[in-house]
Amino acid sequence: MLVLYTDGVIEARSPTGDFYPLAERVASLRASCPDALLDQIHRDLLAHTGRRLDDDAALLAIERTPSHHLHRPHATARPHYAHRQLRTTGPPPPPDP
C-alpha cells in the first residue's frame, strides 16, 4: 500500500511533545485494506495526541490490485478505402505491400 499524508499528521504532537511516528506505526499495523489502515491510523493518531490536533491532517492510502488483463490489445492500422482502420483485437494484419 502507498500512504500519502500531510505535514499535520507527522507533526502532530503528544501531550509530552513527541511527534507522531507515522512510518513506525504503519509498519506495525496489520490492515486488510486501505480503509482499515486509515481507520487504525486515525484512532492511533488521536490517541497519540490526546484526541486533539493542532493542524489539519490528511491521509490517503492506495492499494494496487492485481490486473486481470496481463496483456493489452494489439492495435494496428492499415489502409482501407483511402482511410485508416484501427483494429484492436485479433492477430496483426499482414504488412502492406
UniProtKB/TrEMBL annotation:
<feature type="region of interest" description="Disordered">
    <location>
        <begin position="65"/>
        <end position="97"/>
    </location>
</feature>
<dbReference type="Pfam" id="PF07228">
    <property type="entry name" value="SpoIIE"/>
</dbReference>
<keyword id="KW-0378">Hydrolase</keyword>
<protein>
    <recommendedName>
        <fullName>PPM-type phosphatase domain-containing protein</fullName>
    </recommendedName>
</protein>
<dbReference type="InterPro" id="IPR036457">
    <property type="entry name" value="PPM-type-like_dom_sf"/>
</dbReference>
<dbReference type="GO" id="GO:0016791">
    <property type="term" value="F:phosphatase activity"/>
</dbReference>
<feature type="domain" description="PPM-type phosphatase">
    <location>
        <begin position="1"/>
        <end position="64"/>
    </location>
</feature>
<feature type="compositionally biased region" description="Basic residues">
    <location>
        <begin position="67"/>
        <end position="86"/>
    </location>
</feature>
<dbReference type="InterPro" id="IPR001932">
    <property type="entry name" value="PPM-type_phosphatase-like_dom"/>
</dbReference>
<dbReference type="InterPro" id="IPR052016">
    <property type="entry name" value="Bact_Sigma-Reg"/>
</dbReference>
